[in-house]
Design brief:
With 428 residues, the chain is of the alpha/beta class. It has helices at 33-43, 60-67, 79-88, 99-118, 126-131, 134-148, 156-170, 193-211, 256-259, 261-267, 273-279, 294-304, 310-326, 334-355, 378-387; strands spanning 50-53, 71-76, 173-174, 181-185, 220-224, 241-246, 356-367, 391-402, 417-426. The radius of gyration is 22 Å and the shape is globular.
């Protein structure tokens, strides 16, 4: 079992900035690879087993499974992060020039265009323009445009992600996760944007070379889709998975789409808030008030009636949150998030049950929460939902304490929060 950090602080509960593959891009609130490695060992799988993850993110579980000699299938709703997950599991392009040689050529071309590029920044979004000095942004945009025109050859996606991962390193405003604050200046963490870009490219090259030593007969895949839908699981046969390691979104009002807004705007994937909501958020489960609606919450609560006694516990939480919301001048709609969230989790569990072999175990890392002081025992409620969908609940173990930074805020919670490991076993 993974160690239990006493303070809840430190990298143990977040994606690493230094570990192979994790360091390609630090997706916010991501899995820690050392946890995943330990959890995979906890499953005691035979070599070549199929591991699945319905919330694949940037494929941290996938890269850990590959290193352990297992096949992997993951579903990720964020289309851009799904692309990153897919990329991490690919072999190097055959017969391609060394990646860092390609990047050096890109940098040389960008440097030669830098002065001209400064005069062509008006078309960039306001967010992007406010995050960088003009000379830095000119170079970043030149690299981007070269990649989009094919100058990175077979390495275009690797070059793209090395560049996207460089953005926050060289920004001159506060762009830490999860919020971009272009009105708050800071000294860039790395002053030389092109040197940092080359450094990130060298890490990618090193990791790909390391992956070439792993087993080559494994099936490794991340699909962009909605893990509630059977169409996202068609690439694996039913009852084929021997294990699952995953971490669903927590009920902590974290907006995974908005957290990547800088990268989305810079690359041109979206150009407005509404476009981001309609494309990037389209298949994500509701875990933030930004996604909630009265109608969806009402319909979800009605559907949850079919999931047994757990419905009453969810309804009770919704009523308490509704009372807290109306008692505040500008209360957040947590009560509308909760039913939609748990219905989505139940639908994911239903698809997962179809994918897993009888006797196979699923390990999920998930945290509880207490918006406005109303305690939501998310791990327990997920376990109860799972028991009505073909799983037994085997374990519920505290991994770390969390939420200490809100301890002095009485509107947040008056209970000690934790991140927990729940173990579910497919029984039929």
């Amino acid at each position: 079992m993974p160690p239990t950090p006493a303070s809840g602080r430190g990298r143990k509960h977040g994606t690493s900035n230094t570990k192979p593959f994790d360091r390609w891009f630090r997706y916010p609130a991501g899995f820690a690879s050392d946890y995943v490695t330990s959890l995979l060992a906890h499953l005691e799988l035979s070599s070549g087993s199929l591991v699945v993850d319905p919330f694949a993110g940037s494929a941290v579980t996938g890269t850990a499974a590959r290193q352990a000699g297992h096949s992997f299938f993951g579903v990720e709703a964020h289309p851009v992060i799904a692309e990153l997950g897919q990329l991490k599991l690919r072999a190097a392009p055959p017969h391609a020039r060394p990646f860092t040689d390609v990047v050096k050529n890109l940098i040389a071309a960008a440097e030669s265009q830098a002065v001209v590029a400064e005069d062509r920044l008006d078309g960039e979004s306001d967010l992007v323009k406010r995050c960088f000095t003009k000379p830095v942004l000119a170079r970043l945009c030149s690299i981007r445009d070269l990649i989009q025109c094919g100058a990175a050859e077979e390495w275009h996606l690797h070059a793209k992600w090395a560049l996207l991962a460089t953005l926050r390193d060289v920004a001159s405003v506060r762009v830490g996760w999860p919020y971009q604050r272009p009105g708050s200046e800071r000294k860039p963490v790395y002053g030389d944007s092109m040197a940092r870009y080359l450094q990130r490219a060298s890490w990618i090259e090193e990791d790909i070379q390391q992956a070439a030593t792993f087993a080559t007969d494994l099936s490794l895949e991340v699909v962009n889709g909605d893990s509630r839908s059977s169409s996202s699981w068609v690439n694996i046969p039913e009852a084929s998975a021997q294990g699952c390691v995953s971490s669903p979104p927590y009920l902590n009002n974290f907006d995974y789409a908005d957290a990547t807004r800088l990268e989305l705007y810079f690359w041109g994937d979206v150009s407005s808030w509404s476009e981001m909501c309609n494309t990037v958020r389209a298949e994500m489960i509701t875990a933030t008030t930004q996604q909630s609606s009265v109608g969806a919450a009402k319909n979800a609560l009605s559907e949850l009636r079919g999931y047994g006694s757990v419905y009453k516990a969810i309804e009770d939480v919704v009523e308490k949150l509704s009372g807290e919301r109306v008692s505040r001048r500008r209360g957040k709609e947590y009560d509308r998030v909760v039913p939609d969230y748990f219905l989505a989790i139940a639908q994911v569990l239903s698809q997962l049950a179809k994918a897993m072999q009888p006797g196979a175990s699923a390990i999920w890392l998930v945290g509880d929460s207490a918006p406005y002081g109303v305690y939501i025992d998310t791990p327990r409620l997920i376990s109860e939902l799972a028991q009505g969908l073909g799983f037994s609940s085997e374990k519920d173990v505290v991994l770390r304490r969390r939420g200490q930074r809100w301890a002095s805020n009485a509107t947040r919670h008056d209970v000690e929060l934790s991140e927990r490991m729940i173990v579910l076993k497919k029984v039929h």
